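Lab notebook, bench 4. The sequencing result for the construct came back, and we need a structural model before the next group meeting so we can plan mutations. Quick request posted to the team channel:

Model the 3D structure of this chain.
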Amino acid sequence: MAAAVSARDAMAHPIHSTLAEVTIVPRTGVARIVVRVFADDFATAIARAHANGPPADPGSEALGYVRGALVLSDGERALPLRFCGTRRLGEVRWVCMETASRVPTGRLRLRNALMMDLFDDQVNVVRSFVAKGARSVLFTRGDGSKPLT
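Done. Here's the predicted structure in token form:
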């Protein structure tokens, strides 16, 4: 029976990954990050992050987890991120965050440790559209911040 459960769990997500896009909003100059994550894995990560009790504001659970695992910086300091929406489409959840003000695009760095607390084989792909052209950045367990330009 244990083998059957393990096989079923392995079939659920043969690849543990997230996909994020980082863009600069032309009108405002703020950085926007939209992350696609498997909804059930995301719910598990949030529950683990709040194992000692629910947060003061239940609506902030997802953002609190994401803020701890996904850090955008200007090369010197972390940039505060605010929530700009979420939606669920089937098994996938999209989470949107953005900076409060214009960002310096030439020095932007990102650390993406989403779901790495759950899966040893987690891989996070980031598509960056903050400079001329697009750039892909790959994150695996243990990676620090990486440049987006």
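The first helix runs from residue 2 to 12.
Will bring this to the meeting.
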